[in-house]
Write a structure and sequence with these properties.
Elements: E1 2-6, H1 13-22, E2 26-30, H2 41-46, E3 54-57, E4 60-63, H3 65-75, H4 88-112, H5 124-148, H6 159-169, H7 182-192, H8 195-204
Parallel strand pairs: 1-2
Antiparallel strand pairs: 1-3, 3-4
């Protein structure tokens, strides 16, 4: 039994999707951001950074969404969320997972939380620079999928496609959302048609793409 501490539509989303894809028994515990529960003493004992997700595995709290995705995928190889060790596909999986974490998730942090740059809000030049950095990632990924898709690893769906689609969803209110790139939209449509995506929306009460 896993226990996932989550907030709807946040970075916990990819971990929840992985649990649903695997079909593993799990318990969900909502961390209410409106009540600042992520900074409460009980939660900070589990996750000193005060962020979600936290996944309790065999009684041990673990953090970082991309790491948790890999942990679950490796613990449940039958779900085929990650290719076997020692294969070229495994190397590609690790490449894309780290790329999405280091390049895209860190850029989103600057987009959504200007306080990380020491400002209450972005000035126009900084905001445009962050926007272009994110859009540059979409350019690269769209070209990759157009040439080698339909999935990031080619013909086989994997956990990095769940991660990418979650991150695409975060762009929905940006000036140019990721779905304006045709190959990316095709991948997102495929993921959104999966039972795990539909079930997550039902459980987490999400409506917006």
């Amino acid at each position: 039994m896993y226990t996932l501490y989550y907030s709807p539509g946040s970075a916990s989303m990819v971990v929840h999707l992985a649990l649903l894809e695997i079909g593993a028994p799990h318990e969900l515990r909502l961390v209410d951001f409106d009540r600042d529960e992520q900074h409460g003493p009980e939660y900070l004992k589990l996750n000193p950074r005060g962020v979600v997700p936290t996944l309790v595995i065999d009684g041990r709290p673990r953090m970082e969404s991309v790491a948790l995705l890999q942990m679950l995928a490796e613990r449940h190889p039958e779900a085929k969320l990650i290719p076997p060790p020692g294969t070229p596909e495994r190397e590609a999986w690790l490449q894309w997972a780290v790329f999405l974490s280091n390049t895209l998730m860190s850029s989103y942090r600057l987009w959504f939380y200007p306080a990380d740059l020491g400002a209450e809000e972005h000035d126009s030049a900084v905001k445009h620079a962050v926007q272009r950095k994110i859009e540059g990632v979409w350019d690269l990924l769209d070209a990759q999928l157009a040439a080698h898709g339909p999935w990031l690893l080619g013909q086989e769906f994997s956990g990095v496609d769940l991660l990418l689609t979650m991150l695409m969803r975060w762009s929905r209110n940006m000036p140019r959302p990721a779905t304006e790139w045709p190959a990316l939209k095709r991948l997102a449509d495929r993921v959104r048609a999966r039972p795990s995506w539909k079930k997550l929306y039902e459980v987490e009460g999400l409506t917006e793409w």
